[in-house]
Write a structure and sequence with these properties.
Layout lengths: L6 E5 L2 E5 L7 E4 L2 H27 L14
Antiparallel strand pairs: 1-2, 2-3
Length: 72
């Protein structure tokens, strides 16, 4: 599980949602609850897309994976 800060902006009768630290992760919904559900799906899709792109760029190369913690 990962945590992301999500910003919700009400615009008329819609809620727009975006993740400042994850470019491309944005969505909307008619209600705040719908917007929350949609942004979760958008985050998962962006992360999966990034993973696929990384695997393609590193195929056949020696890769070292590690975890780094950053205070932000």
């Amino acid at each position: 599980m990962s945590e992301f800060k999500v910003v919700f902006v009400r615009s008329g009768s819609w809620y727009a949602a975006y993740v400042p630290d994850l470019p491309g992760a944005h969505s909307q919904g008619r209600t705040l609850a719908e917007s929350r559900r949609n942004i979760k799906e958008a985050i998962a899709l962006v992360l999966e897309s990034n993973r696929r792109r990384f695997r393609g760029q590193t195929r056949g190369k020696k890769v070292i994976e590690d975890v780094v913690r950053v205070a932000a």
